[in-house]
Amino acid sequence: MPKINGNEIRPGNVIEHQGSIWTAVKTDHVKPGKGGAFAQVELKNLIDGRKLNERFRSADTVERIRLEQKEYQYLYDNGDTLAFMDGESYEQIELAKDWVGEESAAYLQDGMEVTLEFYEEKPISLTLPQHVTLEITDTEPVVKGQTAANSFKPAMLENGVRTTVPPFVGVGEKIVVATEDGSYVRRAD
């Protein structure tokens, strides 16, 4: 694995630190009036989710880890686990629902392509597509005069997630939603 200096750590880098693997969430380079410069790095453990704030000086070196990324297709919900299939080898893998996360699992659709990152053959993270298309199952009716202002109304999506939509969008319409935060992007084509 390549070694990098502590001041070269950037957000998104995956490093080995204290015998575990961490991803850099935020970095802040500090040059105090006294003493040498350092990088204040917020780290998140990829195994157990712990967070850690650590100082790295330019003389400190850390191992940068490259994770293997593979495309998988979501197959089905199996109660406590979710089944995925490797598109190349057709090998199936089952991941615990609580490992995937309730928010992410809500956006999974049959046949959806996801990216799994592996470290030493063990899945570390799952990345959903940026946007998904969902149908609105419940929302308030349009109120005259609301369309002029930049206002939004609450809506329930077919996957049970609540979001806000513009006043002109109604029940039964399909919309594109951002998987990161569940926000309305646009009407589906």
Can you summarize this structure?
This protein has 189 residues and is mainly beta.
Helix vs. strand class:
mainly beta
CATH fold type of the largest domain = SH3 type barrels
Outline = flat
User: Can you tell me the CATH class of the largest domain?
Assistant: Mainly Beta
- Could you name the ranges where pLDDT drops below 50 across 5 or more consecutive residues? none
Tell me the strand order in the biggest sheet: 1-6-2-3-4-5
Helix content: under 10%
Order of helices and strands: EEEEEEEEEHHEEEEEEE
Q: Cα-atom Rg, whole angstroms? A: 21 Å
How far apart are the first and last residues' alpha carbons, in Å?
A: 45 Å
List the main descriptive attributes of the protein structure presented here.
189 residues, mainly beta, SH3 type barrels, OB fold (Dihydrolipoamide Acetyltransferase, E2P), 3 domains, six-stranded antiparallel sheet, five-stranded antiparallel sheet, 2 helices, 5% helix
